[in-house]
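Entry under discussion copied across for reference:
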Amino acid sequence: MTLSACGGGGEDSGASDTVRVTLVNHVWTENIRAALPEFEQQTGLKVEVTQLGEDQLSDQYNVKLNAGSSDIDVMMYRPLQEGRLFARNNYLADLTEKARGAGDFELADFQEAPLSATTYEEKVVGIPIITEQQVLYYRKDLLEKSGFDAPPATLDELRTQAAKIQADNPGVAGFVARTGKAAAVTQFSSFLYSFGGDFVDASGNSAVNSDAAKQAYAYYGTMLREHGPANISTDMSWSEAMAIFTQGQAAFYPEANSLYKNATDPAKSRVSDTVGFVPMPAGPAGSKPYSIPSWGLAINESSGNQTNAWKFIEWAAGKAQTLEQQKAGVPGARTSVWENPEGIADYPKDMADAIAVSQANGVGHDRPLVERVSQAREIVGQPIVDAITGQDAAASADKAHEAFQKFLDDEAR
């Protein structure tokens, strides 16, 4: 996308009692639509919802935002996938003053890591509504059988336990995780941070060939090569890796907490009654899982109905709605909701405990913070595949560093 002339004539130049909201197909959306009569009765406003699949949503934003269209007021967007592009192109209205001055909305109630991902150049341009943290799924029965009285607290312990369990249970992998070049980047990120690395350094230059990054690539690849499933594929996303775990074919599986019901639902999982959850095991830099907003709400800068658009966000991302969403299984970004017993009542206790640690230690991104995210993931994900297949992870990281730095330089022009 490129920036073109903006439409509209000011934030309330087209003020209307109808707020036009574009949302993605998601459980959050279904829940919020069911609650809309409450909002409309409270405010006297009418909400007009356009609901689309992810690809359709991206296509619509590509056309309408680039054209400066004013017929979207509120937009549901992916802060880590398109947030930087949208913010840099001035598609997102500055919500800082609205959010800070909005009574009991309480911006400080939002967790720091997710809120950082919806902030651009110190301006709040979005409000996080759905979060994810990485945790470690594991098999309690296999740990007990191999004589371990506690799940791994460190990456060294994870390697030791995975090797022992695999040796004790022929046909069962000690470890499984995403392996696809782009798909694995998000889950690999928690290993990268826990080794003390990141995708870029403090100056914004590529850091994927730092000592920490090379150690993380080597660790992740070696775990899958030596302790992963036999004849492991290098194009697995979460669905394939989850299937291996839920069919009882692996002991440990690092994954997003938002997918946990796939492992605990007896209709989907053969190991539902033996699954446990713990925080990301600590590396040399400690336990540093990602803690991110997978979706947020923003206001179209070209909207002429921004005051009423904010009223919708203030309600939809407010404390009451966030609590209701979380009770329905959609993890939110508000500290007060996570501290409320009602907000975690339906989560397994060990999952709630793991999430609490992840929120405290979490990093607010799980991929490079760039405009062309998909291309960047392809570049930084290549050393993952190379390490899995037994190639020199350090050499691959050096090669990826050159390509990623060129990418960053090009994007900065």
